[in-house]
C-alpha cells in the first residue's frame, strides 16, 4: 500500500487499496491500524470498481455519521458510486420512501421496544427450548443453525406477528437478499418479490381478523389501515415492504452479532466462566462484545450532499464515504487497550456498532435485549460449551453483507 498525496482534497491518481477487507470475522484486518495512523481518510476502490473514501478513525467516523450532509438514503439513488451493486428492486426502495405516516412510524418504534409486556419472558423460553433441542441432538452441533438463526428469527417473528414455523423460509431468503455483488442479478429481485408477497399475505390475514385477535406490528398496521387517515392510502405491498425491511435487517444483524459474540467467548473460555459467575455483568459484556464485533464487513455507506472536509481531505459532493467500524471501534484514541476483549471495560459504550446521529439504529435496545437473553441462557444451559473445530478451519462466507461463518460447530 502507498499513501497518496492530495492537494486541497484533489482527486488521487490511484486507489489506495481494494475494499472490502478480509472476510474473517474473528481477526481484526491487519490494514486497520495502518489506515488509522497513515491514512484515516483513504481512497479505496469498491467491489463495483467505484472510488470511495474509507474513514477509519473513531473521531472522523463519528463526524461522518453525525453530519447530515452525509446521506444514507442517497446511497440508493441512481448514478451514485456504490460499495456493491444495488440488488433491491427500485419499487421496493420507492415504497419505503413513500411512507410518511406518523402513525406508522410510531407503531414501528413501539414494536421495536424491548419493554413490551411478556417479550423478555417469551424470548427466554424460546432460547431455552432451542438449546434443549441442541443438547438433545448431541455435539458437535452447529450453533448457528440450531440457535443463533432461529433465535434471531423468533424475535422478529414475534415483533412482526408472523408464525415462527416459517423461520427457515424467511431466513433462507436473506441469504440472497443481502448478497454483495459487482453487478445486479435478476433473481435477487425475484427473491425480494417473494418475501414482499409473503408479508403482504400475512398482512391481509391480520386484516381478516377481529381487532382483538390481531398480533404484532402487522396487526397494528391493519388497525392503521382502518383508522388512520395518513395510512389509509398505503397499499398492502407498502406495509409488507416495511415488514420485509425490518425482518431482513434485524434478523441478519442480530444473528451475525450473536454468532461472532459466541465465537469470541469460545476462544476465551475464561470469559464464559466469568459470565456464568457474574450474570449481573451480562449487559456490560454485551456492550463490549458490540465494540469487538466485526460482523459489518463492508463499512457504513454515506453519499456527500455537499463539499465537506473530513480530517485533511475535502470530500466532494456526490462522493461515496465508507465508515470502517473495525477501525473506529479498535481505535486506541477512543478505547484503552482496544485489542483486549475486556468484559469489565468502562469505555465500551463509546462504540459505533449501532451507528450515530440521525441514523442511529432504532432497534438498538431490542438488539441488546436479544443478545443479553441469548448469552445468559447459553452460558447457563451449556456450561462446558467449546469450539468443536480449530478456529482457522471455520469457513467464512464471501459476497455477503455480513462477515459470517457458514457453520459454528460446538461441543460441550
Keyword list:
412 residues, alpha+beta, six-stranded mixed beta sheet, three-stranded antiparallel beta sheet, 14 helices, disordered N terminus
SSE arrangement:
Blueprint: E1 17-18, H1 31-38, E2 41-45, E3 51-55, H2 58-66, E4 70-71, H3 90-97, H4 102-111, H5 119-137, E5 141-142, H6 143-160, H7 167-177, H8 186-207, H9 216-227, H10 236-266, H11 269-277, H12 282-292, E6 300-304, E7 308-310, E8 313-315, E9 320-323, H13 325-328, H14 364-381, E10 386-387, E11 409-411
Helix pairs in contact: 4-9, 5-6, 5-14, 6-7, 6-9, 6-10, 7-8, 7-10, 8-9, 8-10, 10-14, 12-14
Regions with little confidence, pLDDT below 50 for 5+ residues: 1-13
Number of helices: 14
Estimate percent helicity.
40-55%
Report the mean per-residue pLDDT as an integer.
Answer: 93
Q: What structural class do helix, strand and pairing data support?
A: alpha+beta
Specify Rg, calculated over alpha carbons. Answer: 22 Å
How many β-strands, per DSSP?
A: 11
Largest sheet: 6 strands, mixed
Looking across the biggest beta sheet, what order are the strands in? 1-2-3-9-6-4
Task: Please indicate the percent range of residues in DSSP E strands (runs of 2 or more).
Answer: 5-15%
Keywords: Heme, Iron, Membrane, Metal-binding, Monooxygenase, Oxidoreductase, Transmembrane, Transmembrane helix
Protein name: Cytochrome P450
Organism: Streptomyces katrae
Transmembrane segments: 238-266
Amino acid at each position: 500500500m502507498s499513501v497518496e498525496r492530495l492537494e486541497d482534497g484533489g482527486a488521487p491518481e490511484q486507489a489506495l487499496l481494494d475494499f472490502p477487507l478480509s472476510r474473517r470475522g474473528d481477526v481484526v484486518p491487519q490494514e486497520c491500524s495502518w489506515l488509522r495512523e497513515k491514512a484515516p481518510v483513504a481512497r479505496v476502490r469498491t467491489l463495483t470498481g467505484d472510488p470511495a473514501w474509507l474513514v477509519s478513525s473513531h473521531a472522523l467516523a463519528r463526524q461522518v455519521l453525525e453530519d447530515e450532509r452525509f446521506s444514507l438514503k442517497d446511497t440508493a439513488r441512481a448514478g451514485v458510486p456504490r460499495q456493491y451493486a444495488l440488488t433491491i428492486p427500485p419499487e421496493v426502495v420507492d415504497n419505503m420512501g413513500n411512507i410518511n405516516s406518523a402513525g406508522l412510524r410510531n407503531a414501528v418504534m413501539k414494536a421495536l421496544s424491548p419493554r413490551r409486556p411478556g417479550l423478555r419472558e417469551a424470548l427466554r423460553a424460546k432460547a431455552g427450548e432451542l438449546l434443549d433441542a441442541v443438547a438433545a441432538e448431541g455435539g458437535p452441533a452447529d450453533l448457528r443453525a440450531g440457535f443463533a438463526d432461529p433465535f434471531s428469527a423468533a424475535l422478529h417473528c414475534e415483533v412482526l406477528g408472523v408464525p415462527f414455523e416459517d423461520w427457515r423460509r424467511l431466513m433462507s431468503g436473506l441469504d440472497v437478499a443481502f448478497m454483495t455483488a459487482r453487478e445486479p442479478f435478476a433473481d435477487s429481485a425475484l427473491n425480494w418479490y417473494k418475501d414482499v408477497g409473503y408479508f403482504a399475505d400475512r398482512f391481509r390475514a391480520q386484516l381478516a381478523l377481529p381487532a382483538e385477535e390481531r398480533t404484532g406490528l402487522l396487526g397494528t398496521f391493519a388497525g392503521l389501515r382502518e383508522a388512520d387517515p395518513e395510512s389509509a392510502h398505503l397499499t398492502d405491498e407498502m406495509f409488507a415492504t416495511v415488514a420485509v425491511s425490518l425482518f431482513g435487517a434485524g434478523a441478519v444483524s442480530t444473528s451475525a452479532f450473536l454468532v461472532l459474540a459466541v465465537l469470541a467467548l469460545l476462544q476465551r473460555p475464561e470469559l464464559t466462566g466469568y459470565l456464568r459467575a457474574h450474570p449481573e455483568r451480562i449487559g456490560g459484556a454485551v456492550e463490549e462484545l458490540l465494540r469487538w464485533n466485526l460482523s459489518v464487513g463492508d463499512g457504513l455507506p454515506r453519499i456527500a450532499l455537499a463539499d465537506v472536509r473530513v480530517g485533511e481531505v475535502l470530500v466532494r459532493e456526490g462522493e461515496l464515504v465508507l465508515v470502517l467500524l473495525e477501525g473506529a471501534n479498535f481505535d486506541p484514541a477512543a478505547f484503552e487497550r482496544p485489542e483486549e476483549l475486556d468484559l469489565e471495560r468502562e469505555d465500551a459504550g463509546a462504540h459505533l456498532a449501532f451507528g450515530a446521529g440521525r441514523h442511529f439504529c432504532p432497534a438498538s435496545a431490542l438488539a441488546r435485549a436479544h443478545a443479553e437473553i441469548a448469552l445468559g441462557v447459553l452460558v447457563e444451559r451449556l456450561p462446558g460449551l467449546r469450539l468443536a473445530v480449530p478456529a482457522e478451519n471455520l469457513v467464512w462466507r464471501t459476497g455477503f453483507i455480513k462477515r459470517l461463518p457458514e457453520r459454528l460447530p460446538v461441543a460441550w
